[in-house]
Write a structure and sequence with these properties.
The chain is an alpha+beta fold. Helices cover 37% and strands 18% of the residues. The protein has a seven-stranded mixed beta sheet, covered by helices on one side. The protein starts with a helix and ends in a 20-residue tail after the last helix.
């Protein structure tokens, strides 16, 4: 498991929100869905993304990919000065600025939405609705908005997504989820590899022959009873050398990293599966639920049962027919 594979395992798309948006100027859509991550790409025409935080508007042309990290709102429009005429809320629910539903009136077919069937601007949108705990290190390393210009590596994936997004075949949502994942991974590889990139410490550390090996061991088998000495033996260096180099490159000691990884895995299992607390405990290296629950509460401030029953960071609030659909934005 490499850096991106491991860290993308949390936000792996599961019933992601995908649609094709077709618009004719003037148009402007206010995005307030609080989604952790959204990918946007033009297939025809142009659009501007206008962040709320005072950053400069960004122009998207065909083939460009924008990745917006939530939960901060932003606006997508034909030009930066166009006032919003619709709003996208949590779960992809679309309304006017006054709360009147727009999903049906602006539906243009399967996973296609907009104000004109032959509009001059077409955008593909893929949104991860729920934040997986394992993804936090990845999400925290990204700017609020990043833009990748048209690239030979992502072009074929965009064309395939464009072909598939309006299909309504059995299992289509799974096909679209995997395409979205591939596009995200390709985009992030390009982002971290660009000249002058300030890649996060964990990403750089993965390229180190010693620390990268140690990270992969911890990520692949968090249930193993790791010690610094055991990890050092597995990577072929002394205990002191591993501890020093690991802390220098990753920013924390090996066992601190392992603890954080274990609870990230556990949190994702609690929210994303029906596994019992006992089963989750064993998957992350605890012999039973009692010790795990005590440690989880100490780290997270609540018991595993409380965490499982609590509200997730993003919710799908009433999105109509998300798996097949039409309505969209």
């Amino acid at each position: 498991m490499d850096a991106l594979a491991g860290l993308l395992d949390g936000p792996r798309a599961r019933g992601a929100f995908l649609l094709r948006m077709v618009m004719e100027p003037p148009w402007s859509v206010r995005i307030e869905d609080r989604a952790p991550l959204c990918l946007m790409s033009m297939t025809r025409g142009e659009a501007w993304i206008v962040p709320d935080a005072g950053a400069a508007p960004v122009l998207l042309r065909p083939g460009d990919i924008a990745i917006a990290r939530g939960p901060e709102p932003y606006t997508v429009a034909d030009v930066p000065g166009t006032s919003p005429r619709s709003r996208i809320g949590p779960g992809g629910v679309c309304t006017t600025l006054y709360g009147e539903p727009l999903a049906e009136s602006m539906s243009l077919g399967v996973r296609t939405w907009g104000n004109a069937p032959d509009g001059s601007a077409t955008m593909l949108v893929g949104t991860y609705l729920l934040e997986g705990e394992i993804s936090r290190r990845l999400l925290d390393s990204l700017p609020a908005l990043l833009v990748l210009r048209a690239d030979a590596r992502t072009g074929p994936l965009l064309r395939l997504l464009d072909d598939e997004i309006s299909q309504d075949e059995p299992g289509q949502s799974v096909v679209l989820d995997r395409l979205l994942d591939l596009l995200l991974i390709a985009g992030l590889r390009t982002w971290f590899a660009r000249p002058g990139a300030e890649a996060p410490a964990w990403y750089v550390a993965m390229g180190d022959p010693v620390v990268g090996h140690a990270l992969r061991l911890l990520q692949n088998d968090p249930a193993h009873p790791w010690t610094v000495a055991g990890l050092a033996a597995a990577t072929g260096v002394s205990r002191a050398a591993l501890a020093r180099r690991f802390s220098e490159l990753v920013g924390e000691p090996p066992m601190a990293y392992l603890t954080g990884w274990r609870f990230a895995v556990a949190a994702d299992l609690l929210r994303g599966t029906d596994a019992t607390v006992e089963a989750v405990a064993r998957k992350v290296g605890y012999s039973g639920s009692f010790a795990f629950s005590a440690a989880f509460k100490r780290v997270r401030g609540m018991s595993p049962q409380e965490y499982r029953g609590g509200p997730p960071e993003s919710l799908d609030h009433g999105l109509p027919n998300r798996q097949q659909s039409s309505t969209g934005a």
